[in-house]
């Protein structure tokens, strides 16, 4: 993808692209940040219930919905379609917000006693993110077919697997 082609697709000039974004890297940075802003907004829109497990499951669903709704943003957020772009510290801080929202829901699950007291919500959130990211990435590339029920089952198995692995360590 060249800056000239992006400008043509947007119905503008290359100069406008450079003025507004500084080139392809700036466009990628804007897409990266917008992608995480959209994911954060979707995550914050999940209404909390009295069931923290259900809320955690809903966050996993939101992650998938976000990726399927905005695959180009998802690609910039987690791939490297524009090699010149690499997230800087400010970009990574923005991406961390989604992780922190997930960790907060994990903390609520820990409070139920379903996970060992003292379990690390950040570690569990990272585990869950890794699993859902893998499933969604494979789905987006067409490597696997997933429907909502299958996805929910994968999320449940992931959490059960984490609990079992955690129990085996203690």
Care to describe what's here?
- With 170 residues, the protein is an all-alpha fold.
- It has a single domain, classed as Orthogonal Bundle (Tetracycline Repressor, domain 2), CATH 1.10.357.
- It is built from eight helices and no strands.
- α3 packs across α5, α3 packs parallel to α6 (89-111) and α4 runs antiparallel to α6 (89-111).
- It is elongated, with a radius of gyration of 18 Å.
- The termini are far apart.
- The mean pLDDT is 88.
Oligomeric state of the chains?
Answer: single chain
Tell me the CATH superfamily. Answer: Tetracycline Repressor, domain 2
- SSE string: HHHHHHHH
The profile of the biggest β sheet is: none
Q: Identify the CATH class.
A: Mainly Alpha
> Which range does the strand content fall in?
under 5%
Helix percentage range: over 70%
Task: Extract low-pLDDT stretches.
Answer: none
CATH architecture: Orthogonal Bundle
Terminal Cα separation, in Å? 51 Å
Determine the number of helices (DSSP H or I, runs of at least 4 residues). Answer: 8
List the defining traits of the structure above.
170 residues, mainly alpha, Tetracycline Repressor, domain 2, 76% helix, 0% strand
């Amino acid at each position: 993808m060249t800056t000239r082609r992006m400008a043509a697709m947007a119905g503008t000039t290359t100069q406008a692209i450079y003025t507004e974004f500084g080139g392809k890297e700036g466009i990628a940075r804007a897409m990266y940040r917008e992608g995480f802003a959209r994911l954060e907004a979707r995550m914050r829109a999940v209404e909390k219930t009295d069931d923290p497990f259900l809320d955690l499951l809903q966050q996993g669903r939101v992650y998938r919905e976000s990726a399927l709704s905005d695959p180009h943003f998802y690609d910039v957020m987690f791939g490297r379609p524009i090699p010149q772009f690499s997230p800087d510290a400010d970009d990574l801080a923005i991406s961390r917000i989604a992780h922190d929202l997930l960790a907060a829901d994990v903390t609520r699950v820990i409070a139920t006693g379903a996970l060992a007291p003292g379990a690390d919500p950040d570690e569990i959130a990272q585990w869950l993110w890794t699993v859902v990211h893998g499933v969604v990435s494979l789905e987006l590339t067409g490597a696997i077919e997933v429907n909502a029920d299958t996805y929910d089952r994968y999320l449940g198995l992931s959490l059960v697997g984490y609990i079992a692995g955690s129990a085996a360590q203690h």
